[in-house]
Each structure stands twice: as C-alpha cells, then as structure tokens.
C-alpha cells in the first residue's frame, strides 16, 4: 500500500487488509456452453489500513485503527484456470485526508498462481 501526502510518497511496514467478494452468474441467462459462461457479476467490499515507518508505539495502533473502505460492482472475465480480468465501478467509502480517492471505473487483472 502506498499513500500520497502532497508530493512525497511513503511505504508502510505494518498493514492489515480484508475483503468480501461475491461472484455470481450474470443476471441474464446466456446460452449453455457459450462465451457468456466465462463472465460473472462481481460485488465487493474491501477494507484495510497501514502504519508509516516513522510512527511508533501507540501511533501505530491508532493508524491501524483508521481503516480505509471501498466497495464496488462490476464484471469479471475468467481466462482459463489461471487468470481473470475485471471491470469494476469502485466507490471509496472511507479514506484518510492525505489519500487521493479515485471513484469510477477501474480495470484489474488477477493471476491464480497456486
């Protein structure tokens, strides 16, 4: 995770992250065995937070308690058993003042390595 504060960036050494994702068949029924079976509806909520290296002691615990939260919905395309491509509309629900929230469409690529 990386945060932006004015022009400088900082990298966290301590973080936590959690997510709830729901993949379902598309609301309309594509034909069996067709290309439509590779697509899924995608709903999600993600939360997480980080602590900066310069923080210490109670400041780290306080920073880790200030979770950032985002939710969204979109469509996921399965690419075999190894990867997927997602097009999601994301909405930041909670952010710190120094964050640059970017609601809108986001494209994601994920690989399943295990």
From TrEMBL:
UniProt-annotated location(s): Membrane
Keyword entries, A-Z: Membrane
Keyword presence, Chaperone: no
Domain Bacterial surface antigen (D15): 12-108
Membrane-traversing stretches: none
Listed InterPro entries: Bac_surfAg_D15
Protein's name in the database: Jg10181 protein
Species in which this protein is naturally found: Pararge aegeria aegeria
The encoding gene: jg10181
């Amino acid at each position: 995770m990386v945060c932006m504060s004015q022009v400088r960036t900082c990298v966290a050494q301590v973080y936590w992250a959690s997510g709830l994702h729901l993949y379902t068949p598309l609301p309309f029924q594509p034909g069996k065995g067709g290309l439509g079976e590779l697509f899924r509806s995608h709903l999600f909520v993600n939360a997480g937070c980080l602590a900066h290296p310069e923080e210490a002691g109670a400041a780290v615990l306080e920073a880790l308690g200030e979770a950032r939260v985002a939710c969204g919905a979109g469509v996921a395309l399965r690419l075999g058993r190894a990867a997927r491509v997602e097009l999601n509309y994301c909405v930041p629900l909670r952010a710190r003042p120094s964050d640059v929230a970017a609601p809108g469409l986001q494209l994601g690529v994920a690989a399943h390595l295990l």
